[in-house]
Amino acid sequence: MKPLIYLIFILFLLLFLKISVNAQAIIDIETGAVFNGYNDVRIPGDKGTLFSLNDDLKAKTKIFYRLRASYKIKSRHTISLLYAPLETKSEGSITNDIFFEGVIFPANIPLNGTYKFNSYRLTYRYDIVNKPKIVFGLGFTAKIRDARISLSSLDMAAEKTNVGFVPIINFNLFWKIDDKIGLLLDGDALAAPQGRAEDVLIAATYKFSDIFRFRAGYRVLEGGADNDTVYNFALFHYVTLGFSINF
What we know:
This protein is mainly β and about 250 residues long. It is about 10% helix and about 70% strand. It has one helix at about 1-20, and strands at about 25-40, 50, 60, 60-75, 75-85, 85-90, 100, 105, 110-130, 135-150, 155-175, 180-190, 195-205, 210-225, 230-245. The protein starts with a helix and ends with a strand.
């Protein structure tokens, strides 16, 4: 509940700022189902056993939510805060021993896996194109990841945690088909030798009024890292429904 409380506080702050400048405050809520495409793990990255939290173990479908508070200034500048939690569970058994974070899990025993990747993002974006039918913006996202991968059996457990900063390029493209319907392409993405990260949404939007907007679409979240400490690459598919409230 803390992230929701923080966003409510941010909303009141944005509303206060809106009174004094030409600006628009927006609260966005997204929910739906998330499905694991692949999730390959080897910890440590140089000596651990490679296994899959989706193929060797079976990942469960998860209901998700995301919360975003945005502040649009003079129609072209957007500042936003995003809280995007993600935690999936896997279970099953593997036919070979697993060496994971210093612990050897014997073959053919019941195992439970947890994959957590919570994301906190601060974004600034400038709309390079701002026309009645097309809006296109580019910006920068400062992302804090709170990650944990764990594996457990009845009598042993191990986990790897990581909290770190990731800079990402942000983009947003909106095509207004008519007064009510539009198409949205929005995301954060960056690739580097140390790893990569992509979080991209494509959605159809419907404008109920100047205050409420609805969308439905597909989101893909993919990325990972490969180093001596951690090898992990994961892909998630989202079926999404979103609501935005403009103040």
